[in-house]
Amino acid sequence: MASVSATCPRFQPLFSHSNKTGRAPGLKLVSVGWAKFTGFPSLKASRFRVSCSAKPETVEKVIEIVRKQLALKPETVLTSETEFVELGADSLDTVEIVMTLEEEFDINVEEESSQNITSVQEVADLIEKLVQQKAQGES
Amino acid sequence: MLSFQRSFSVSPSLQLPSPMETHLWFVVPDEFKSVSLLNQYMELLSPCEKENVLSMRGEQLQKQALLARTLVRTTIARYQINNRVVDPRSLKFKRNVHGKPELEWESDGGQCPSPLRFNISHTSSLIACGVTVNSSIGIDIEEKQRKIKNNILAFARRYFSLHEVEHLSAISDSEVQRQEFVKLWTLKEAYVKALGRGFSAAPFKTFTICIKNGFRRGFDHADDLESGAPEVVVESSDHPERLTNNWQFGLFELVSSHYAAVCMEKDKTSDAGMSVPIRLNVRKTIPFVEDECISGTDAVVPIAGLIEQF
């Protein structure tokens, strides 16, 4: 991950340029979202768009939010496979995490969907699905 | 049986809770430092429970998970059924169709299924188990100081009912608002857990919990009841005709650090319209070491609902 963040400053001008031209409307939605919260430029986002399961960046963002909500120690290892029960998340934590994710990704998670989420990977996959659905709905 | 009695001090067995009684037992994780005691507790758990405890990330979480299962097993085992001593290790648990944990009581030779019902709630600093007889029970405990990471009103608008949002919005002091939010959360959680049908069967937005200022309903109240104690009422937002007056609530402060909410079914033999108090007994425990009854002390401070401590 250290190598990724090191490349960010190099791409900055490229991001702001593509945002102004508004060349790919669908892409713009995702890229604005990414830039706002992760600093990742649109170019990086477009490369990963086609994959079926969640982008590593989405998983990373979920992990970051979960860490903050549960005030986890830095040495606590979190991977995409980590299940929320293992982290001692209670129901209020889970609902807060979902709400934070809704705000971060500008999506709406139905209560029924959030019922079936047990791991970081599942949350990330659900987010991607909802972000894509939203992008398709708007284009 | 013999080895069980030698290894663990058998707690004096208790009478089962009567109707409208809740016995609340709790542990404070910080009070458990002895590795040998924790190892003893580990021996009480089923293989599946042990696996779950060990899958928790970090020692603190493992300890909390261990104490939670220990609390449930040892608490239930205290209540002697049919004059037989119960080994906490022998208890079996199952989930109802909706996923709520329940006691599985094998009936052999005409034994009745266990009337004991329980519900558990944890925070990192306190784990509690409520026990009743023949009444569905839900409990929720939260730290009084719990900080909400999201904006409270935004959260309430997203998850709570309209009336609840209005109630919270009307509070100008942000600290008081946060406290009221936490109290409301515990009551809503306790209700959903008492219903035992899972979060999706009663999404938080579909019901309103209202703490009404105490008023006399025109019935004769016993002298020792809190006069004017705020009443807690639940109403269904989307199905107003749905029966909700069969649930009784109690909200109180526990050991000055936590809010505790209890929701139980009203005793079926009492009049539906009458509000009978929840008789509450609260005990802090270190299983196999000591128990301390704290009901009626300043460690239990009623906030709302009809509560009679004993």
From TrEMBL, chain A:
GO CC terms of this entry: chloroplast
Entry-linked SMART domains: PKS_PP (SM00823)
GO molecular function, one term: acyl carrier activity
Name used for this protein in its record: Acyl carrier protein
PROSITE patterns the record matches: CARRIER (PS50075), PHOSPHOPANTETHEINE (PS00012)
Family annotation (Gene3D superfamilies): ACP-like
Listed Pfam families: PP-binding
Compartment(s) of residence: Plastid, Chloroplast
Domain Carrier: 56-131
Function: Carrier of the growing fatty acid chain in fatty acid biosynthesis.
Sequence similarity: Belongs to the acyl carrier protein (ACP) family.
Record flagged with keyword Lipid metabolism: yes
Major location (coarse): plastid
UniProt keywords, alphabetically: Chloroplast, Fatty acid biosynthesis, Fatty acid metabolism, Lipid biosynthesis, Lipid metabolism, Phosphopantetheine, Phosphoprotein, Plastid, Transit peptide
TrEMBL record, chain B:
Keywords assigned by UniProt, alphabetized: Transferase
CC terms in the record's Gene Ontology section: cytosol
Keyword Hydrolase part of the UniProt annotation: no
Record keyword Chaperone present: no
Enzyme Commission (EC) number: 2.7.8.7
Ranges of residues in domain 4'-phosphopantetheinyl transferase N-terminal: 39-127
Biological-process GO terms, alphabetical: lysine biosynthetic process via aminoadipic acid
Pfam families for this protein: AASDHPPT_N, ACPS
One MF term in the entry's GO annotations: magnesium ion binding
EC class of the enzyme, as a word: transferase
InterPro entries reported in the protein's UniProt record: 4-PPantetheinyl_Trfase_dom (IPR008278), 4-PPantetheinyl_Trfase_dom_sf (IPR037143), AASDHPPT_N (IPR055066), P-Pant_transferase_sf (IPR050559)
4'-phosphopantetheinyl transferase domain location: 136-213
Signal peptide start-end: none
Listed name of the protein: holo-[acyl-carrier-protein] synthase
Native source species: Salix purpurea (Purple osier willow)
